[in-house]
Design brief:
Length: 448
């Protein structure tokens, strides 16, 4: 009898708790509706807006998969390349597909081998599209988690980062490229860096590199952060983690033909076809293929990294060589905002100086653009011009084939972003990296 009497009470309590939760949720929605202007402009509403956009993106991806025809570009070649490995071929120079030889590191082979078996040897395209739609949502969640930590970008901007980009949806669910796989792993590693889990972050960063080499554009910024956080001796174990994973993943191929594996998977001198370039269409093809032009771009990239490392990533109050010292004798580690700024700007400098950008390369920096535009004070570049820059960049990447006008416009947009990063970030970084005062005032607490 006591047990029977207690059961209705427990049910009543559970119903009461669920009713209270529903009321709290409804109250939150009513409050958000009353403050809808603030919800669009105040970064503190990023989690709510992110949740709504992720739900919307689920529907958008399903609509794209069912309504927009799939276009075969590289998926069949990917499957042919990993099929050779599945059949026992360990000589990397013998792995190839319809589009040419395999030119990605070993991590790509293992991940796409899993997709090869999951999709019936690559024949079930629709299932592959659904898997990439899931990857799209996972990637979006990881990006939103980063933006929640920065607390810089107004939430209305995320609409342009999600539902409004045709090219990004195409790269994920209509083309099935390997670039999104590498970027999703990269964003997971950045989340770990922000949480101060550097060893796991380095492991996943190296895994992302093993899928596609474009992740190396983040490497200069990561090296700077490791030196800043651990000093010269302390960062060596982290670099060893990155190197060791590359050796383990590539070991089956290194044992058979080490030179073939290294030259194919990490070919930094590979030539690109002029017909696919998005950023250098305004140049003559002979200039585009000229080695002197490639060397000039490399020098420009190195010079940009050096300038940012000396004057934007590093406080001007101390010599940059102090990064080599024991961190205990220096300032505390960088806050999350500085970590993200350094990594995103390092990658952006590499994109600006790339020998060629193909349409799938848009995903290399697309999700970082809102941060790069809004990490500086709004007075440096007002909201509307920033949104306009996002729109023009999107238009340039959706112009096929690229034109002289579209490629020039893309460079102009990149140049404007670089200028506002250079002139708008130095005071912010110094204030974030400066040590806290011993007697903080009420005003200083609010700023922090």
């Amino acid at each position: 009898l006591p047990a029977r009497a207690g059961a209705p009470r427990e049910a009543l309590r559970a119903e009461t708790r669920s009713g209270m939760a529903a009321e709290r949720g409804a109250a939150a929605l009513r409050r958000a509706w009353r403050e809808r202007r603030a919800a669009l402009l105040e970064p503190r509403y990023t989690p709510l807006v992110a949740a709504c956009l992720c739900l919307a993106e689920g529907g958008v991806n399903l609509w794209v998969i069912r309504r927009v025809p799939y276009t075969e570009i590289d998926w069949k070649a990917y499957m042919q390349e990993v099929e050779g490995f599945a059949n026992g071929t360990l000589d990397y120079t013998q792995l190839k597909g319809d589009t040419g030889p395999l030119v990605y590191p070993a991590g790509f082979v293992y991940i796409f081998l899993g997709l090869y078996y999951a999709t019936g040897r690559g024949s079930n395209i629709r299932l592959a599209q659904y898997l990439f739609a899931g990857l799209y949502l996972l990637n979006l969640l990881l990006v939103f988690r980063i933006y929640c930590r920065t607390n810089k970008v107004p939430p209305y901007v995320f609409f342009f980062m999600c539902c409004a980009s045709y090219r990004i949806h195409s790269i994920f669910v209509l083309r099935l490229f390997n670039d999104p796989v590498a970027m999703a792993i990269l964003f997971l590693s950045i989340n770990l860096f922000v949480e101060e889990r550097w060893s796991w972050g380095c492991l996943l960063f190296s895994l992302a590199v093993s899928v596609k080499m474009n992740i190396l554009l983040f490497a200069p910024g990561l090296l700077f952060l490791l030196l800043q956080r651990f000093g010269l001796l302390g960062c060596i174990p982290k670099l060893c983690i990155c190197a060791l994973l590359q050796v383990i993943l590539g070991l089956p191929f290194l044992l058979v033909n080490p030179l073939g594996y290294l030259t194919r998977s990490f070919d930094l001198g590979r030539q690109f076809l002029f017909k696919w370039t998005v950023n250098w269409r305004f140049l003559p093809e002979e200039v585009f293929q000229n080695r002197a032009f490639h060397a000039a771009l490399l020098l420009a990239h190195l010079a940009g990294l050096a300038l940012f490392a000396l004057h934007r990533w590093h406080s001007s109050k101390e010599n940059i060589l102090t990064l080599l010292k024991d961190p205990a004798k220096r300032k505390s580690a960088s806050p999350p905002l500085t970590i993200i700024f350094i990594l995103f700007s390092s990658n952006f400098l590499g994109v600006c100086c790339s020998r060629s950008l193909h349409y799938q390369f848009y995903v290399w920096y697309f999700h970082t653009l809102p941060y790069l535009l809004w990490c500086t004070p709004t007075t440096k570049l007002a909201h509307m011009p920033k949104v306009l820059l996002l729109g023009v960049i999107e238009l340039c990447w959706n112009t096929y084939p690229s034109t002289v006008c579209s490629s020039l416009s893309l460079h102009i947009c990149h140049g404007l972003i670089l200028l506002q990063l250079w002139y708008g970030t130095a005071p912010t970084l110094v204030s974030h990296t400066a040590p806290p005062s011993r007697k903080p005032t009420v005003t200083s607490k609010k700023k922090q």
